[in-house]
Specification:
There is one protein chain. This protein is of the alpha+beta class. Among the domains are: 104 residues, Immunoglobulin-like; 84 residues, Immunoglobulin-like (Sandwich), CATH 2.60.40. The chain has an 8-stranded mixed beta sheet. The N and C termini lie far apart (74 Å).
Length: 282
């Protein structure tokens, strides 16, 4: 009886393998023509020039440029008219290639005027693309939320410490924050970078790290006070990035606050933050 079962199992395995081989075949899929989209990123930071990055998406199957110059030519959108209106003034951003050494970010539209520290009046973006389409958005700059304290805690009888960051929530309103945590310098890849809201916080926020830091290490805590559109945009980008290349991941659309006649994604938002540098000491 045991021998019959073994033979039956081998026959079944052979049959499944044979059927699987016969089922393999090439399938031609006719994909629709890809429609490029405009991408806008504009962050209004008080005391910094008005700056904006206007690019366009490319098809997944397009050949990748072999040089940086070709890459920039492919994605940068030149020849647009870009203005930002605020407090009765209209600021016109000039087309070019600009680099901010503080943020280490590049832009292709910039006005030398500095963004005013105004937490009351709104800012209105208007873009006319080279093909005559429009892109519009409105935003405000939120007041920064101060960091109350930075606490360094060492493990008992150990040389490693964790860093705790405390700050107070703003009462009686819905708030959103972005937390960034760097080690050594702001040029490094952040150890933590996420956005959160205050739905489950009564009074105080506390963000912590692992016990990874020795005496003499330098860490940077940054708390951004952000609005709901940027919160949704940031989280949708994070989700889309994690889904990219994952055959089991669900497609994730980018949530944007841009409108108009152009096919566009991106964000137009104010950017304020509180940042504290700490040298770890016992």
């Amino acid at each position: 009886m045991q021998r019959i079962i073994n033979y039956s199992f081998l026959f079944l395995a052979f049959a499944v393998t044979l059927v699987s081989c016969n089922l393999e075949q090439e399938i031609d899929i006719n994909l629709p023509d890809y429609e490029s989209r405009y991408v806008v990123e504009c962050y209004l930071e008080p005391g910094q020039p008005f700056s904006l990055l206007l690019t366009q998406t490319a098809s997944y199957f397009d050949p990748f440029p072999s040089t940086n110059a070709e890459f920039l030519d492919d994605i940068l959108v030149d020849g647009a008219t870009v203005t930002i209106a605020h407090g009765g003034q209209t600021f016109t951003l000039q087309n070019g290639l600009f680099f901010n050494p503080l943020s280490r970010k590049a832009y292709n539209y910039l006005a030398p005027d500095l963004v005013p520290t105004d937490y009351e009046q709104s800012f209105e973006l208007n873009i006319v693309t080279p093909d005559g389409k429009t892109i519009t958005a409105t935003t405000r700059i939120l007041r920064p939320v101060p960091i109350d304290s930075i606490v360094v805690e060492f493990l008992e009888d150990d040389t490693l410490a964790r860093v705790l960051t405390y700050f107070k929530d703003i009462p009686n309103e819905q708030n959103y924050f972005r937390r960034m945590f760097h080690e050594h310098s702001l040029d490094s890849i952040p150890l933590q970078d996420f956005a959160t809201d205050d739905r489950f916080v009564e009074d105080n926020f506390v963000f912590g790290s692992a016990y990874n830091f020795a005496a003499g290490d330098t860490v940077f805590n940054t708390i951004f006070h952000i609005d709901r559109p940027y919160y949704d945009f940031f989280n949708s980008v994070q989700t889309a990035a994690s889904s990219n290349g994952n055959p089991f991941g669900q497609p994730s659309p980018i949530i944007s606050n841009l409108q108009g006649t152009a096919n566009v994604i991106g964000i137009f938002t104010g950017l304020t933050y509180e940042r504290v540098m700490t040298i770890v000491e016992r």
